[in-house]
Amino acid sequence: MSLFRRLPPLAAAAVLLAAQAAPAEEQLVTIGVSGPLSGPNAFAGKDDENGARLALEELNARHLKVGGKALRFVLQSEDDQGDPKAGVAVAQKFADAGVGFVLGPYNSGVAIPAARVYNDAGILMSTVGTNPKITQSGYKNVFRIVASDTQAGAAMAAYAARQRKLKRVGVIDDRGAFGQGIADEFIKQAKALGMSVAGHEYTSDKASDFSAILTALKAAKAEAVFFGGYAAQAAPLARQMRALGLNVPLLGGDTLCSPEMAKLGGDAVGANVLCAQGGALLDRLARGPAFQARYRARFKQDPDVYAAAFYDQAMFLAQAMQASNSTDASVVGAALHASSYQGVAGRYAYDAAGNLVHSAVTIYTFRHGAPVALATY
C-alpha cells in the first residue's frame, strides 16, 4: 500500500506539496580568489575580487545545472598580501579546504611559487600574473587570462620606437618577478627595434625615493623612462621626475594602466605616462559598457584593470562545467583548452601551455585622471 493511501486526504496533500516545494539537490562550487587585499596593491586585489563576485552572483541567479544538480557558486577570497610566502600559504589553505578553482594570484611573484601548490593539489588556477615563467612549468591547469610580459613589453617598445621615435630609453625595475620580467622583455624588444638603453637601474616595491636613479638617467640623456613595477611606486616616480626636471615620458606595463595611478600621482600623471595593457578599452567593446554599468551599480565605483578578466574567466569556467557536465577541475580544465568564450574584455581561448591564443595589447595614456587608449597592437 502506498504512503498516500495510508494517510488521510489532507495529510497526503501536505506531503505532496512539500515534495513539490523541495529544492533540487544543490552542488556547491567554491571559487577561490587570491590577491593583495592589504598593502599598496589592495585596490587591485579588491577590484579583482569584485569582478569574480559579480560573476558568481549572476551565475547563481541563472540556476545552472550540472549532472542534474543545481550549482551554487560560493566565493572564498583570501589575502595573499602580494607576498610569495603568503601566497603559498593561501594556496595550501585552498588545497586543504578542497577548493577546485582559484582566480589569481594578481602578482607574478606570488603566482610562480603558488602554481606548484595548485598543480600538486589538482586545483585549476587562472592568473593575471604576466611573467612568462608562470606558464612554462608544464602545469595543465594553469591559465594566464591576460597578455604576457612578452606581448606587453613588445607592444610598448614598438609604440616607443615607431610612434614616439625614441632612441635612448632608461629602464628601472623593482627586482620583482613582474617588474623584472616586463623590463627585460621591453629591453629585448627595444634593442631589436634600434633603441639603446641609457641605463638600467634597480629599486624595490617598498621604495619611495627615486632621486638618485632618476638623476643618473637624466645625466645619461634618457629620452624616456620605462618602469617595471606597480602603480604604488610609479606614481611617486612620476612626481619626482617632474621635480627633477626630467620631463620625458614614463612608460610601463598594465599595472600603470589604473585610475589609481592618476589618483596617487595627481597632476604629475597625464599625457606623459604611457602604459601597455592586454585587451581593448571596455568602452569600445560590445559588452563593455553594460559590464561597467552593472559593476558600478553593485560596488559604487568603476572597475579597474582586471575586474573584467576575473569576471570573464569565472563565466568561462561555468560554461566549461556545463559543456563537460562536470565540476571536476581536471575535466573542466580540458574543456577550457578545447573551447573558447566571448567575454566582456575579449575572446578567451588557450594554447597547450595555458596562454591566451590571441591577446591584443593596447597603449594608453592619461587624461583627466583616466586611462585613454592611443593604439592597439
Strand elements, count: 15
Order of helices and strands: HHEHEEHEHEEHEHEHEHEHEHHHEEEE
Distance between the termini: 74 Å
Helical segment tally? 13
User: How would a crystallographer describe the biggest sheet?
Assistant: 7 strands, mixed
Shape: elongated
Low-confidence parts: 1-7, 10-22
CATH architecture verdict of the largest domain: 3-Layer(aba) Sandwich
CATH class of the largest domain: Alpha Beta
CATH topology of the largest domain: Rossmann fold
CATH superfamily of the largest domain: Response regulator
- The structure class reads alpha/beta
Overall number of domains: 2
Protein model, in words:
The protein has 377 residues and is of the alpha/beta class. It folds into 2 domains: 183 residues, Response regulator (Rossmann fold, 3-Layer(aba) Sandwich), CATH 3.40.50.2300; 144 residues, 3-Layer(aba) Sandwich (Rossmann fold). The N and C termini lie far apart (74 Å).
Secondary-structure map with pairings?
Elements: H1 3-6, H2 9-21, E1 26-35, H3 42-62, E2 65-66, E3 69-79, H4 84-96, E4 101-103, H5 108-121, E5 124-127, E6 142-144, H6 149-163, E7 168-173, H7 177-192, E8 196-202, H8 211-219, E9 224-228, H9 231-243, E10 250-252, H10 259-265, E11 273-278, H11 288-299, H12 307-324, H13 329-338, E12 341-342, E13 347-348, E14 361-367, E15 370-376
Parallel strand pairs: 1-3, 1-4, 4-5, 5-6, 7-8, 7-9, 9-10, 10-11
Antiparallel strand pairs: 2-3, 11-14, 12-13, 14-15
